[in-house]
Amino acid sequence: MQQIKPSSLIDFVYKPIELVSDTLERKLGMASVVIISLSAMLGSGLFVLPALAMLDMGGGSIPVGGIWLAYLLAALIVLPGAISKGELATAMPSSGGSYVYVERTFGPLIGTISGLGLWANFMLKSAFALIGFKAYLIILESLLGVTIDIEIAALLLLALIVFINILGLKRIKKVQTPIVLTSVIFLFTICIWAIFTMEMNWDAAFSREAFGADWTSVAETAAFVFVAYAGVTKIAAVGGEIKNPSRNMPYGILLSLLISCLLYVVISIVMVATVEPSSFMAEDGGAREDPIYVFAKAVGGETVGIIAAVLAVTTMTSMALAGIMASSRFPFAMARDNLLPEALENVHPKYQTPHLSIIGTGIAMAVAITFLPVHDIAKLASGFKIMIFIVINACVIVLRRASETHSWYNPEWKSPLYPLIQWIGIIGGFILIYLMGAKAIIGGAACCVLGLITYYSYGKSRAHPMLTPWRTVRTEFTNSDKFEREKRWLVFHTAAAKQSNPDFLNVSEFVHAMSMIAPQYEATHARNLFHEIDTNGNGVIDVDEFLAGIEQVDEAE
After folding, report:
1. Which CATH class is domain 479-556?
2. How far apart are CA 305 and CA 450, in angstroms?
3. SS3 243
4. How far apart are CA 557 and CA 551, in angstroms?
5. Which of 151, 239, 309, 418 could disulfide-link to 93, CB 3.0 to 4.6 Å?
6. How many CB atoms lie within 10 A of CB 95?
7. Where are the alpha helices (DSSP H) in 403-479?
């Protein structure tokens, strides 16, 4: 009877995990991380959402002013995901962000779904930003005395944004830094101006009636404004281009979350205390899409209102600039893993940017702007974004559990209060999905279908089947024998991969491998065991000898 080799029971191949990408140049520091994150949030989150949130909290008929609490609650729900992503980013500081973390944890199938879903999410949000400033353009139309075609203006801005992205992140930083700083300074100046010169009605923000019918009104509005914080972790998508990622990534993410939350809360409080919430409604009963113009005009007059309109258009263009930058990195990272055509992995020889991925994303945005109801689709994509936050928190739990076997997971910055903070994020995410209802489910399902089709039609035949941390955790609870075999197989290859011959272990490498599998073994004991396993005396053992020898020791014990 032919003996079955232990390694033949393993249904995957070993592929070293690439933790740091050297394809792209690392140019971004802490300030750049914060600026890019803020530029991805302060567009629609401040210039469009407030009035819509007032109407939403009031039940869709009467606007109320307690939206600051919804912004604060949404930030608290985002916080666990931001902390988890900070840890993951220091362990895997490569371009691709959430896609990389999910693919390395759960494998190529779930990775394909997350990568394409995130790409579609950021791409549609960026397209929405380019046409979402319609109300502010109308104000400028009357000032300039010209008629502006929204679609043509959006496509021209898109072409400019694609060009700037190809030139590289240094150019993006130079464009975004003055825009973000000017917007923040202007908005805080308006708030201070209002407090000292206007008659403030603080009850509009803090009275019981300001928060809608009951606590569910606040919770549902928090789910609605959740998208305002989606950009707080968008910077992780360009992790391969950030200097000193072990410090700049986690602290940059958390600092940008703090600043954005402060901006949303303070500005929304002063806004409704200065201007009655009913003034943010349009004549047809819907919410106005230019709330900052209404606020600025009430405080400083028509001229200040026009300045606010110009800043709104500029800031939302900056938001689209950050969006296409982040979304283009998902196809780039997926191409590196053979889940998309390898051409998308190419970088520009001069500017060191994934130019084909950027151009492809720009073309997709142009199609979306021209043919799709971007406003509605962007809302559906928000449901998938919440699901990704849930999965990101789950990644940390799985990787921590499997880190003894998958020793490559060694983050330089670790989440505090683990795993409590992750479970809070997971539960909070499910609550948001429940409150969003059918839109969240439809958006998530659409992204899953897109990912499944892509994986089974292209990626499955090309991807490397890997022993993922999720597989390790799953088999630990469902099949202890398989868990031990796969753990030993992975330890063998992890130890061998660091050497000149990845197919064999010598005695010192074997001792190191045994220290991971059975730390109770002393080095002398491990060396004696190596010579027992090395029956032909050639000084090295292959994976089958390694697995069979350790199994014989287990049986003897």
Report:
1. mainly alpha
2. 43
3. coil
4. 10
5. 239
6. 25
7. 420-436, 438-454, 469-478
**178 preceded by a cis bond (ω within 30 of 0):** no
Report yes or no on whether pTM surpasses 0.70. Answer: yes
The DSSP symbol for 9 reads: G
Reference 333, options 554, 47, 67, 21; nearest CA is: 21
Burial class (CB in 10 A: 0-12, 13-18, 19+), 215: exposed
Q: Coil, strand or helix: which one is 541?
A: strand
Summarised one tens digit per residue, pLDDT across range 49-58 is: 888 889 888 8
Q: Return the residue matching tokens 């559906």.
A: 380
pLDDT in tens, 225-262: 887 887 776 666 666 667 777 778 888 888 889 988 99
Domain ranges of the chain: 30-456, 479-556
Query: Helix or strand or coil: residue 95?
Result: strand
CB 291, CB 280: distance < 8 Å: yes
Tokens coding 91: 């362990």
**Tokens 């709330």 belong to which residue?**
291
What fold does the segment set 30-456 form as a domain? Amino acid/polyamine transporter I (1.20.1740)
Residue type, 138: I
Two tokens at 423?
A: 């479970």
